[in-house]
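In response to the reviewer comment on reproducibility (Comment 2.3), we provide here a single inverse folding case reported in full, input and output, so that an independent group could reproduce the run without further information from us. The structure tokens appear first.
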């Protein structure tokens, strides 16, 4: 939540959330290119598309709240962040560092990171729900939280299957 300290208005909270969603979208898009498992590749492509939908929802939320178009400079015209700054993803790390970290990692490790990212995203929307009183904004944030929760459940199931498969393999080898 440190990321949100510069936000002093609902518009700024929305702009910062948009930046995190964009960073996460970039991260998932690149992970989809790098993983070799076809099912994992599809999962990360699906997560990329979902992040695109979050960006659209947050832009609409901003426009509904402010009653004017977001404009081409959105979200940078709303919050004092340099467009050249490192892109941050929902887990609070830079996209660059996240992508460097996954190099040479197992699918299980990548999925563990993804669970962390989705947990932080879900938690962020729950936090933001406490910050807004407008029912329209709360509805959108509730919907975004619900989608993040679905992502968390999906990725957690994936991770669980990977752990179970490894345990089965270990048991076979140990026998």
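Designed residues, in position order:
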């Amino acid at each position: 939540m440190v990321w949100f300290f510069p936000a002093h208005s609902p518009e700024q909270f929305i702009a910062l959330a948009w930046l995190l969603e964009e960073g996460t979208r970039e991260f998932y898009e690149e992970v989809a290119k790098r993983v070799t498992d076809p099912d994992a590749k599809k999962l990360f492509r699906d997560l990329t598309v979902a992040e695109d939908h979050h960006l659209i929802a947050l832009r609409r939320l901003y426009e509904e709240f402010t009653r004017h178009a977001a404009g081409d400079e959105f979200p940078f015209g709303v919050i004092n962040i340099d467009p050249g700054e490192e892109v941050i993803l929902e887990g609070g790390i830079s996209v660059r560092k996240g992508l460097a970290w996954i190099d040479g990692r197992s699918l299980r490790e990548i999925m563990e990171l993804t669970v962390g990212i989705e947990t932080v995203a879900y938690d962020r929307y729950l936090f933001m729900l406490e910050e807004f009183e407008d029912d329209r904004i709360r509805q959108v944030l509730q919907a975004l939280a619900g989608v993040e929760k679905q992502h968390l459940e999906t990725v957690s199931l994936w991770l669980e299957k990977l752990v179970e498969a490894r345990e089965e393999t270990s048991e076979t080898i140990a026998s």
